[in-house]
Amino acid sequence: MYILGLNSYHGDSSACIVADGKLIAAVEEERFTRIKHWAGLPVRAISYCLKEAGIEIEAIDHIAVNRDPKANFLKKALFAFSKRPSLQLVSDRLKNAGKVKDIKTLISSEFRVQSTSLKAPVHNIEHHVAHMGSSFFVSPFEEAAAVSVDGFGDFVGSMWGLGRGNKIEVRHRTFFPYSLGLFYLALTQYLGFSNYGDEYKVMGLAAYGEGKFLDEMGQIVKIAQKADFELDLDFFIHHADGVSMTWENGEPKMGPVFSKKLEELLGPARKKGEEITQRHKNIASSMQKRYEDVFFHILNAVYNETKLPYLTLAGGCAMNSLANGKIFQKTPFKEVYIQPAAGDAGGAVGAAYYVWNQILGNSRNFVLEKPYLGPEFRNDEIKKVLDDHADRLNKEACRVEYIEDKERLCHLTAGHISEGRVVGWFQGRMEWGPRALGNRSIVCDPRRTDMQNIMNLKIKRRESFRPFAPSIHVDAVGEYFETSYPDPFMLKVYKIKPDKRSIIPAVTHFDGTGRLQTVSENNNELYWMLIDEFRKITGVPVLLNTSFNENEPIVCHPEEALDCFLRTKMDVLVLGNFMIERDDINETG
Ligand SMILES: [Fe+2]
After folding, report:
1. 395 alpha carbon to ligand 1 midpoint, in Å?
2. Same domain, 195 and 312
3. How many structural domains are present in the chain?
4. Domain assignment of residue 197, given as a range
């Protein structure tokens, strides 16, 4: 049985396919359209999933969408009646809901088949239910507290429930206009980061500030009873004027959500491009702190209600790796599972598994342990790309060598890294979720204090306050970090042991922390081997790992990787078994 899961007409549109309960493919549409966070109908992601399953669209048995325009209808109607939102807001939402409802017609027209030949029924799964399902149903836990925290979806800002076997029972919804994600978004916008998905930048900035605005943050978001919280709506406009949102065939765009009163409280908002001052850093730090206070209030209340030691987390806020790294300190939970695409993209997986497990009643038979669910390319396909671009490679004086032996490939690559070179590492299936985890990564030496600058100069040109992350052998975590808890998906920040910070300065953030990815032989054998070869040369089982891209979505196809290599000053590119080196390599690094 094939279930097609979709997150469509929403940021990070994506598709996945579940075959007899196994997740065999999952990918975000942005990787194909090459526009970050692309929103719309994920036609190319669907095509890829079908190809991976070896079927045509007509063979799909069920379509699952992570939105249900009918969910919480009464609440919506009551809100519309009492608050009388603007006509524009109502009409925008209705149009978007219409697209979600009409998904079968839209798919059949895109795939040029009669809609009658699509036998699959469409299941609309409430947004946060799909979020909770996206983690719980693919987690290793038989029973767990399931929590979803995000902006808004189907009129809800956060939700928690009880996952047991093949069912999730919803226990609580926090309704519009309250949302912790919206609080984070408002302050992110206030700090001058206005692109969709910029919240993670503010999280990086928070390390440089102090909690000097904690009182003010306490006025903006208030802790309420049980697993609840409230926003002081005077600081926001989303509930009154609405927020302009564009979810169709392009980069999602969101208008401002904060009011003038927020500027009265905190001072004038930072304009995009303006200098970042200590005041901005203090606001970022205070906001992150307040976010954590409320987040842990929710988790502790959920623990008190469930008394379960296992937690599964999802929703955009589950990408807040600073907060995630403190879960064991601040709550009684003993185990936590977050899937790699915890944000809206992951809703495709949650919706599909909700159908497989909860609606169809199948027992759970899959744990999402590896994030490598996207496209892969054979060496002969890579060779064709290299042949097609032979002129450009010649012009840039690049040498190409085919290295059959994997151990030699890893040994030579590790040698380049240990000599300070920046290496593009493109292997196997692309990662599902926003983190590059060793298959579409740029890797370099974490021991060099100047590596961050080199990376920024050669490739990334990103804000200097944003940290780079470490990939570490799983059995060395306890030696380097103040935890030994594995995290193969790079979703938690932990303190690096004080005596190790000077050994890996390039991946040690300003506050002595690092957002680690643990790598095991079982999880990614080749990447593990690469780190092992680096360890043999240097004694350090750690690499600096950043996503393979340059202000664009992570590269998917070898041609995009080659393009990125040629237009930046990357020193070495390893594409499958091909190693491409610049001729002037000895002058670099
Ligand atoms: Fe969401």
Report:
1. 46
2. yes
3. 3
4. 133-341
CATH of residue 282's domain is: 3.30.420.40
* pTM for this predicted structure: 0.95
Q: How far is the CA of 254 from the centre of ligand 1 (A)?
A: 14
Whether 140 and 109 map to the same domain: the answer is no
Is residue 154 within 8 A of residue 72, CB to CB? The reply is yes
Please tell me the distance between residue 349's alpha carbon and the centre of ligand 1 in angstroms: 13
Contact residues for 255 (Cβ-Cβ < 8 A; gap 6+): 243, 244, 245
Instruction: Tell me the CA–centroid distance for residue 347 and ligand 1, in Å.
Output: 7
Contact yes or no for 6/355 (Cβ under 8 A): no
Rounded-to-integer distance, Cα 568 and Cα 588, Å: 13
Residue ending a domain, among 127, 147, 182, is 127
Ligand 1 geometric centre to CA of 403 (Å): 43
Shared-domain flag, residues 402 and 491 = yes
Per-residue pLDDT of the chain (589 residues; tens, 9 = 90+): 999 999 999 999 999 999 999 999 999 999 999 999 999 999 999 999 999 999 999 999 999 999 999 988 888 887 777 766 666 666 666 667 666 668 999 999 999 999 889 999 999 999 999 999 999 999 999 999 999 999 999 999 999 999 999 999 999 999 999 999 999 999 999 999 999 999 999 999 999 999 999 999 999 999 999 889 999 999 999 988 777 777 778 888 888 999 999 999 999 999 988 999 999 999 999 999 999 999 999 999 999 999 999 999 999 999 999 999 999 999 999 999 999 999 999 999 999 999 999 999 999 999 999 999 999 999 999 999 999 999 999 999 999 999 999 999 999 999 999 999 999 999 999 999 999 999 999 999 999 999 988 988 888 777 888 889 999 999 999 999 999 999 999 999 999 999 999 999 999 998 999 999 999 999 999 999 999 999 999 999 999 999 999 989 999 999 999 999 999 999 999 999 999 999 876 544 4
Instruction: Please provide the DSSP assignment of 49-98 as one string.
Output: HHHHHT--GGG--EEEES--TTTTHHHHHHHHHHH---HHHHHHHHHHHH
Contact 311, 94 (CB under 8 A): no
State whether 201 and 87 are in the same domain.
no
Torsion of the alpha carbons at 468, 474, 475 and 479, rounded to the nearest 10? 30
Beta strand pairing call for 469-473 and 253-254: unpaired
β partners of residue 575 = 426, 578
| Residue 89 is assigned to a structural domain of this protein | yes
**Residue 174 bridge partners (DSSP):** 158
How far, in Å, is the centroid of ligand 1 from the Cα of 366? 23
Query: 292 vs 219, 276, 301, 327, 338, CA distance in Å?
Result: 15, 23, 14, 10, 17
Q: What is the spatial distance between Cα 32 and Cα 431, in angstroms, rounded to a whole number?
A: 13
Six token digits for residue 268: 């004038």
| Residue 200: Cβ within 10 Å count | 17
Q: How far is the CA of 190 from the centre of ligand 1 (A)?
A: 21
Q: CA-based Rg of the chain, rounded to a whole angstrom?
A: 23
Cα-to-centroid distance, 11 and ligand 1 (Å) = 9
**Ligand 1 center to residue 352 CA distance, Å?**
15
